[in-house]
Amino acid sequence: MILATGSAYVGPLVDAISHARLSNYRSFFSPTSDNETLGLYQWNDDVSGCLFRAMSLLEIVLRNQFHKALGCRFGAVGPTGGKDWFNHLNLNPDSRDKVKKITHRKRHGTWLPRNPMPSPDDVVSKLTFGFWSHLLDVTHDATGQTLKWGEILVDVVPGHRMRQPTQWRQPERDALFARLDLCNEIRNRIAHHEPIWKLGPLLQEARARSGVTPVIVAPAPTTPADVIDRLSVYYDRMMELLKWLSPDVAAAYRGCESDARCRMLLTNEALDHYRNRRTLGTVQLDHFLGERRLAKVLKYASRHRQPVALKRGDAVVGHWTSHAK
After folding, report:
1. Which InterPro entries match (predicted)?
2. Which residues span the domain enclosing 299?
């Protein structure tokens, strides 16, 4: 999102977003003007967008890893090749209902199978992120046989340091549950348009059970610098989970523009840049015949901390933002 600057826009933007929604930014970041407040709001929106792009990839890889690992062990082959393993596990009632809402429709109070019946691949693609963490609660298949989670998880997270089935004891499975639960919480905050920087205490990666209470590793952020540090921790944990699921995909993502932009946004310099936002400039790429001329213009923009939109004709093809002092 790019919010226009200038006094003519500030009032209407504040009214449109609402004073109530911006009040959290004012109380935590102590901006000195509405323009600063809008800059902070835009920073939150851009960070959320970057995290959501990473989360979308993570969610796809996560469900496919479970789908492959469980499909190798349970189910009948569907029309597109995937197996309906979810019909062969003793799922908890909530998880069973999530599957049923995809495979059936309710008519006059009665659940009827959809026609045509969704393929196993279609069912898996529609399951929520939260479904996968609670899948770890399943202990038996539909015949009453105990699930060998150690063997399954070795296939689900081949990039994890625990590569032997015997290593996946209950505490280790609970730590994985906590990581999945954290990612689901981040995803839901973004999806519900909640400020991504409003965070509670950082808990130990464990699960509350009889005799086990996750301890607080770090208190809730109280300063903007604390927020940057905490969001960086969360992003690193997302990327580590992606590496556990697929080292190759994680390596490919580590070298892409979205990752670089997210890491750039999660700095104190970037936050200050958004707080003191400037009018967006324009660089028309069609006017430059060589890289050296373009580099000089972008260097000048960096020196003056001027964000610019890169255009070809009328189309915006990228943005340039630097925090050089």
Report:
1. Abi_system_AbiD/AbiF-like
2. 280-320
Write out the two tokens for 92. Answer: 């908890």
Does residue 220 sit in the same domain as residue 304? no
Distances (CA, A) of 215 to 172, 198, 204, 206, 212: 16, 20, 5, 9, 9
DSSP letter at 200 equals -
What's the average model confidence in pLDDT over 293-310? 74
User: pLDDT tens across 257-274, in order?
Assistant: 899 999 999 999 999 988
Q: Strand 308-312 vs strand 281-284: parallel, antiparallel, or unpaired?
A: parallel
Distinct helix (H) and strand (E) counts, the chain: 13, 7
Domain total in the chain: 2
Cα separation, 157 vs 181, in Å, equals 16
Helix%, strand%, coil% for the chain, nearest 5: 55, 10, 30
Q: Please give the model's pTM, rounded to 2 decimal places.
A: 0.85
Dihedral angle computed from the Cα positions of residues 60, 66, 67 and 72, in that order, rounded to the nearest 10 degrees: 150
CB 100 within 8 Å of CB 127: no
pLDDT tens digits for range 156-171: 999 999 999 999 999 9
- Reply yes or no on whether the pLDDT at 324 is more than 50: no
